[in-house]
Amino acid sequence: MFRGESIICLAAAAWQGMWARAQQFMTIFARSGNRILYVDPPLTLLSPLKNPALRDVPKNIRQCGGENIDLYSPPVILPFGNMYRPVNRVNQRIIAGGLKKLCRELAFKPTICWTYLPNTVDLRLPAGVTLVYDCADEHTAFPGLINKATVLKMEKELFARADVSLASARELCERKKEFAPAIGLTPNGADVAHFSKAMQPGLPAPPEFQNLPRPVVGYVGAISAWFDQEMLAAAARVHPEWSFVLIGPVDTDVSLLNSLPNVCLTGRKDYAVLPAYLKCFDIAVIPFKINELTTGVNPVKLYEYLAAGRPVVSSDLPEVRTFRPHVAIAGNAVEFVRKLEEELAADSPEKGAVRLEIAGRHSWGARAESAAAAVKRFRKRKDVG
Fold first, then answer.
1. What pLDDT is attached to residue 57?
2. How many CB atoms lie within 10 A of CB 106?
3. How many CB atoms lie within 10 A of CB 172?
4. In the 8-state DSSP scheme, what is residue 363?
5. What is the pTM of this model?
6. Domains of the chain, with CATH numbers?
């Protein structure tokens, strides 16, 4: 692990949002003696219209995210930056100006810029900064206000500019080798110590779970356009005596799910309490539609479910296949229902222990070490050259 670095992280998810790769890596780097400036994805002028909850989000402020971590919410930027390159260049100048001022105030001299966003290719960085592009999604496949050709061009340029390129999934790695032949595979993982608390007998159940009919089929994550509502609804209709609990933010129409009396959408829950919720799951699911976006996903929730000892039924995602037979895979709604029935009937404490052991091989600590090693290799080559 490297130490003594000052890392600007240009994240795709807000620090206070669903915890995943960027927050995990930066937390581990901070604990290892590095200084972190975590930059939330900027809001555009249209963001509050698309999501009213964002109207009250504080902007352009600095907060303490923990030891060695400062959080920064950039100024509001123009919409359509992922559609029109000139707009993105203006936006990145706005962000760069705010960062330059903040770095002066903090006496923060960046040595590494760790980005998750293709559009940051237009962000000017101080000379000598090591640029890491950590590709965790197929950005050209996201729905919304994007132009696929524009995003692809920015990403190709970012790969060419980056000193170190990483990918979170094998499929992503293969797709991006055309642009970054030296790209390295660093999959996602889990905070195993945190999520294994779900297996502790003394952990109390959340109050809203205490009277739910069992079994409880659970999901943790965003309910977005890629969530297969029809697949989950099919299971809820076949088994009206079961409870289906979905924990996470909603940013798509969920009228289908809300119409089912045995489906409960709880909204987002704090990362710290997720093990208590997972403890109440009898089985956990990853019901994703299969498309260009999801085939490049390495689902963090898979590792977290395993660390909690839960049986898992997933859509047929490439990154999940390697976990068979310890994870059940369904190709359609009928199979999904059947796999749920089979996995619930066959579960045991012994199988839970095996899942925990598997999760232990995929810790965030090991993933962060791998990512840091890629940076150290680049630095070594640079010094030799």
1. 52
2. 14
3. 23
4. B
5. 0.94
6. 6-189+363-384 (3.40.50.2000), 192-362 (3.40.50.2000)
